[in-house]
Amino acid sequence: MIANKEGITQEELVINLGPQHPSTHGVFRMVLECRGESIVGVTPHMGYLHRGFEKLAERRTAVQYQPYPDRWDYLAAMFDEMAYIGAAEALLGIEAPPRAEWLRGIVMELNRLSSHLLWLGTFLLDVGALSPFLYTFREREMILDLLMELTGARLTYSYLRFGGLAHDAEDIWLKKVRAGIPYFRSRVREYRQLIDDNEIFRKRVQNIGVIDQDTAIRYGLTGPMLRASGPAWDLRRHRPYGVYRQIETPVVTRDKGDTWSRYQVRMDEMDVSLDLLDIFLEGIEPGAVNAKVPKNIKFPEADTYFAVEGPRGELGVYLAGDGTAHAKRMKIRPPSLFNLQVLSQLLVGHMVSDAVVILGSVDIVLGEVDR
Amino acid sequence: MNKEVVLAEKLVESAQKCVAEGYTFPVVHTAVDHKDSLELIYIFRDVRDMDRGERVLSVQLDPDHPVVDSLTPLIPGLVFQEREVYDLFGVVYEGHPDLRRLLLPEGFVGHPLRKDYTKTQGDVVQ
Amino acid sequence: MNNLIIATVVGMILPGIAAFLLWYERRLLARLQVRMGPNRVGPQGLWQSLADIIKLLSKSDTVPKDSNPWLFKLAPIMAFLPVFMAFAALPQLDPRLNIGLLYLVAILSLSALSFLAAGMGSHSKYALLGGFRATAQMVSYEIPLSLALLGPAMAAGSLNLNVIASWQQHHLPYILTQPLGAIGFFIAAMAEAHRPPFDLAEAESELVAGYHVEYSGVRFALFVVSEYAHLLLLCWLVAVMYLGGGAPWLVALEIMTMVSIVIWLRATMPRIRADQLMALGWKVLIPLTSLNLLWTWVWNL
Prior knowledge:
The structure holds three protein chains of three kinds. By secondary structure, chain A is α+β, with helices and mostly antiparallel strands. In chain A, about 45% of the residues lie in helices and about 10% in strands. Chain A has helices spanning about 55-60, 75-90, 100-125, 130-150, 170-195, 200-205, 215-220, 225, 235-240, 260-285, 335-340, 345, 350-360, 365-370, and strands spanning about 15, 30-35, 40-45, 160, 165, 305-310, 315-320, 325-335. In chain A, the strands form three sheets. Chain A has a three-stranded antiparallel β-sheet. In chain A, strand 7 (about 315-320) and strand 8 (about 325-335) form a beta hairpin. The radius of gyration of chain A is 22 Å and the shape is globular. Chain A starts with 12 loop residues before the first strand and ends with a helix. Chain B is built from two helices and six strands, in the order E-H-E-E-E-E-H-E. Chain B has one domain (about 1-100): NADH:ubiquinone oxidoreductase Nqo5 subunit (Beta Polymerase, domain 2, 2-Layer Sandwich). The longest helix of chain C has about 30 residues, at about 125-155. The N and C termini of chain C lie far apart (about 45 Å). Chains in contact: A-B, A-C.
């Protein structure tokens, strides 16, 4: 640190952020090269949470693999289940009955809400405000309680099954969800009142980490990251699956592509999720929740790609079978990993404080990045 | 899936055609080990035109010498995907700006998603 | 001799008040954040900070490898001493100090050195960045702080804090006659004490803990106690200089009100960025406090 008089040299300050840094949201690691406080180079490192889920899909049978997708993106496990089950159903040619599709829609939107709430809290923690973190956790806890009542687990639900669901939802549960929606809506409004017009917050996020439309598309960004830059691409709308085929999902976009836009897109998406929940709870019809599924599930010799719009973006599964109960190859398309690709470009020229904010606005989940 | 089977030498050319037609969005890139061959799958999409479907390119490689031209200079969104396939399958992408392992530690031996991979093979050599 | 006894007594009571403020902040912050806060040790958890300090005292004394031991060990004491020395200027403790304000400003700027020493001595890049940020912050906010303090001194015609405080007994308090100076002083004082939203020197989401990232045990306790003593000092100064002081219970009430406002701001505000902090200091606060000085001059013509 303290140079002697003769050999004073100048070099970049290399700061190692992570894997045990409080703001890397898990075990992400990036090496920042800084000149003073300005960043001139970024090297992301990942893989600290690699658990080999793609290899496991080749070693487990299709049914045995069912609980694993919950562990990819542990903050929005319903979407992982939907991606895996959906891909398998497409490959096997099974269709889930309507009530199952409605319920899948409900649990997914609830899960999206809880994931966005967690993002909001941790993002503001990155910006430096502690209180919203505790407020959003209060609401998130209520959603987790609802999901726990339905599925028996807080995070790793294992609720979706081939051709349907593990079990039906009771009417009283649906009533509870319906009763919760106005409350959540008022809370989301409260957060916007609390956060939106805060001068310091605006100064910290506006014009920070700008991605233009072309870069966003070429880097394969999806979800709020893409929509904040302009393109109105939402799989729920443009490649509808399940219950989304019956409704027209509104797509939230902004066009500046900065951190502020990403914040706004996610906040608006929470409102959209609540609107969708209203529609789903109106539309849900009685009936069976399980289709007829062969006893021994064997993937045919074919391949398919199935994607759902998760809270972080396009969560896809490429599934190839070879006539056995095991998958020949299963590839997960994790939205966070694609969204991270643009990080090293985003950070250069900003300050160390901004690095944390921008990383927070990307909304990564390391379970999904590293798989 | 409707795949366009492309020769490894013609891959860059086909990808350029895709990009020129507006399929600039990289959906996913992966490899499948068929034991006698290694298949690379590229899925592209046109995000600006919602009604056009995805385009799937498929390339067959020799599993003993899996070498292919990198598409990263053309579509930067493939940078981590190609690193991942290199990491897990051992496919070498020529022209990739930064071909290092993505998920496994540096010094790891073997490519675990290959069908002939055995557990004893994988170990970190310092 | 008499003074020595007073100094000793004050020196022993102040850490106690700092510990009380620590408890008060944790408790109030918790209530603002819909949680309980410490409520187990003693009535309403009042002895929590005492228990924390005892715990910290019993910790082993660690000095990181490759650190500069001199700087590293000196830094907490350098942070601790100036803050405690500054209390001597307060009218409730020494009403006769004629150069009160001058002494205060001079002594307070010394603590900037401690953050630099801690940052340089810790052999950690996070600490280094935190130390640089803290020093830059203190150096730039020293100026609006002094400029703001000059206003009341000019109006009262004395550098003695007691004279300034008692001047307000038969005039309006300065917060009404010099609102710009009061606001400027409050913001600059928050920045001086590294209170959120100006806590970027110890930003836990960026620099983990900033300049005191490598400290543990007694040395860490010294940093914490000096931080809360600093908070107490600045709230006390606001009470004396701008709210008019008065009877001891009134001063205590004013101090607690200011402390509550500071904690409330902590619960509401995100952290400001380093360059924005500098911009605020040089482009907003210095003109604001200079304007206040001009205004005071016109007022007293």
